[in-house]
Amino acid sequence: MLRVLGPQESGRDFLQSLLDIHDINIERSQFFDTIKSDRRLSFVEEISQQLRRESHLGLLDLDPLAAFPELEGRAVFAGDGHYIEHACHDPRSDYKGKPYVAIGHFFAIDLRTHWLHYLDLSGEGTKKEHDMSVLRKVSDQLKVDGKKGTIWVWDKAGIDFLFWHNQKQAHGIYFISRLKENMKPIKCGDFRWDAKDERNEGVIADEMVGVSAGIIMRLVTYIDPETGKVLKFLTSDFKLPPGVIAHLYRLRWNIEKVFDETENKFHESKGWGTSATAKRLQGHLTAMAHNLMLLIEAKVRREHGIRDEKVERKYEKQLRRREEVALEKGRRLPLMIRLLRRRATQFSFQFIRWLRNHLNLKASYEQSLPALRRAMVSYF
Fold it and tell me: pTM score > 0.85 for this model?
């Protein structure tokens, strides 16, 4: 937790802070040998899996998808890649004539619980790899908990019709994405949908379309009531209400906000080590830190009634302003906006600082709570 949450610029910086603040002396060679250990990586992966099995269901009290009975019992994830700066001693490699050493991590976020999963490293950490290449490598992870009906929401880089068709036929896994500008699907028919269902607000068409290799997909056309922007969504799910398809894709923004959190609030914008093992270890531990913070946040909310009130007030103020702007243009906010907002999309700086500061102070849980209450009421 300290390594992920700390503002240290390097591994050596972190080791010095451990010695200065905690009187913990870890040899530099020992630390850097450990982060490139395959055995240690397997150990961390096992801890991460066990933590999820024991804990993530306790976060369902804020499930934004509980309002949709059609999704009952179905897991819903958003996935994407995130690139950060190379490690200090990474060898510079030549990629398409240019130095390219950005480290790519692929993550998935559970849209019910906000739990963050680490999927895999892109291009062994030496070059960019297409999203579909990574998805093929981690295809055995897509059927989460062995459940049929799992939905994956991915941006346009995750479109491969044959891949998702096979996932649906063989494993009961579905996908939702945006239509690419250069795609010309052929209309085969229309799906019936209820225009009176408020969840379908903004939907103007729900079509059956033919795509490549004779595969049939569903195309939902949606006009955002707030902006007037026309959006087209492709999916292999033929049963969900079309408005739910559109709003599940809206929730994909959660993973982008978590990337912003890990890079700018956790300061995880640079690689820890040069080996692929060290880079994977960093990805797993970054996800684990986010998830442990989710559990801490849930604990203080349930047991002590502590919520991030200032963030809630700020969001309500933003919604009111958005409503005013939309009304001035003769538009309105989608009714689903409030229905889907059950938790903040990322932790506030003050929550992160509180946790980091009290870990460094070696304060007990009870000793730390007054400072947290103070930090959750107003901005400093």
Answer: yes
